[in-house]
C-alpha cells in the first residue's frame, strides 16, 4: 500500500468499542519503495484536478465558447479543482516541514487551553455550516506541556476539522483537556486531549491505516469533503516529534474519539527514547 511507516497496532475489543494504539515503528528497510510509492501517489493526486482543469479549459475554448451559462458553471467547477490543488500543495509543504523538524525536541512551554481556544475559534464558522457546535472542557488550572505551539495548533485544527467534516451532528463536538496522569503506554505523566464526535464512526479495519498518507476510509465520499488525505499523516509526524501518542477510539454508529497524549516533562522524553 502507500504506507510510509509500519505500526504496532493493539486492538482491544471491548463490547463494540475498538481502541487502536498507533506506534511509529518505522525502520529504514523499505525507505526507497516508500519514497517511490509516495511520489506515485502525489503524482496521481495532482493529476486528477489538473486533468479536470485542462478538460474544462478545452471545453471553454471550444464547445462552450458562446455559451455564457455553461461558462459560468464550468468556471465554478474549475475554481473548486484549483482550490483542491492549492490545499494539496499546502499540505505537502506542511508535511515536509514537519518531517524536517522531527529530529529536534520542541521545548517551549505551551498552554494547551490557548491552543484549543485558537483552533476552535478558527473552526467555529465551519462547524456552523455543518450544523454542529464545538464545546471545550478544560480544568481550572493552566495545562502546560513542552512543545511547539504552532504545530500543536495544527494537530488540534486537523482533528477538529475531521470531527466536523466526518462526524458533525446536533450533539456537537467536544474538545477536552484532561488533568495530567501517568500513562502506562508512555511510562510517564501525560496530558490527554480528546476530540469527540457522535458521528457515524470508523469501521475497525480502517483504524490502523488512518495516518497513512492519502488513506481515506471512503475514497469518493472523503474526496468530496475536500480533504487531501494528508491531515492525519501530518498529525502523526507532529506527535512523533513531541514523543506523544495518537489514539483512535471509534464505535460504528456512535462516534469517534481521537486522543493525543503529550508528555509533561522534557527530561522524561530522553528516558523514553531508550525504552525499546
Ligand atoms: P483528510 O485530509 O482527507 O480529511 P485525514 O488524514 O485527515 O484525511 O483523515 C483520513 C480519513 O480518516 C478521512 O478521509 C476519513 O475517512 C477518516 N476520518 C478522520 N477523522 C474522522 C472522524 N472524526 N470520523 C470519521 N472518519 C474520520
TrEMBL record:
Parent-record interval covered: 78 to 353 of 353
EC top class named in words: transferase
GO cellular component assignments: plasma membrane
GO biological process, one term: cellular response to phosphate starvation
Compartment annotation: Cell membrane
EC number(s) given by UniProt: 2.7.13.3
Residues in Histidine kinase domain copies: 41-266
GO molecular function: ATP binding; phosphoprotein phosphatase activity; phosphorelay sensor kinase activity
Main subcellular location: membrane
Catalysed reactions listed for this entry: ATP + protein L-histidine = ADP + protein N-phospho-L-histidine
Keywords, comma-separated and alphabetical: ATP-binding, Cell membrane, Kinase, Membrane, Nucleotide-binding, Phosphoprotein, Transferase, Two-component regulatory system
Record-given protein name: histidine kinase
Amino acid at each position: 500500500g502507500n504506507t510510509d511507516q509500519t505500526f504496532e497496532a493493539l486492538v482491544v475489543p471491548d463490547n463494540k468499542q475498538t481502541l487502536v494504539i498507533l506506534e511509529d515503528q518505522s525502520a529504514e528497510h523499505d525507505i526507497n519503495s516508500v519514497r517511490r510509492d509516495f511520489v506515485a501517489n502525489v503524482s496521481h493526486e495532482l493529476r486528477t484536478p489538473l486533468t479536470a482543469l485542462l478538460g474544462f479549459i478545452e471545453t471553454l475554448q471550444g464547445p462552450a465558447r458562446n455559451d455564457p451559462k455553461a461558462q459560468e458553471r464550468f468556471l465554478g467547477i474549475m475554481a473548486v479543482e484549483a482550490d483542491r490543488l492549492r490545499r494539496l500543495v499546502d499540505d505537502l509543504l506542511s508535511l515536509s516541514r514537519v518531517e524536517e523538524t522531527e529530529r529536534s525536541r520542541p521545548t517551549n512551554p505551551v498552554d494547551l487551553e490557548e491552543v484549543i481556544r485558537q483552533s476552535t475559534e478558527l473552526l467555529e464558522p465551519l462547524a456552523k455550516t455543518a450544523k454542529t457546535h464545538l464545546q471545550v472542557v478544560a480544568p481550572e488550572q493552566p495545562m502546560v506541556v513542552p512543545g511547539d505551539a504552532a504545530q500543536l495548533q495544527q494537530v488540534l485544527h486537523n482533528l477538529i476539522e475531521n470531527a466536523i467534516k466526518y462526524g458533525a451532528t446536533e450533539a456537537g463536538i467536544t474538545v477536552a483537556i484532561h488533568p495530567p496522569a501517568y500513562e502506562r503506554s508512555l511510562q510517564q505523566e501525560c496530558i490527554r486531549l480528546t476530540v469527540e464526535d457522535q458521528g457515524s464512526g470508523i469501521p475497525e479495519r480502517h483504524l490502523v491505516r488512518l495516518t497513512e498518507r492519502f488513506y481515506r476510509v471512503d475514497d469518493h465520499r472523503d474526496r468530496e469533503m475536500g480533504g487531501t488525505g494528508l491531515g492525519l499523516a501530518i498529525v502523526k509526524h507532529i506527535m512523533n516529534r513531541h514523543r506523544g501518542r495518537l489514539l483512535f477510539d471509534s464505535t460504528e454508529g456512535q462516534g469517534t474519539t481521537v486522543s493525543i497524549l503529550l508528555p509533561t516533562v522534557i527530561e522524561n522524553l530522553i528516558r523514553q527514547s531508550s525504552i525499546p
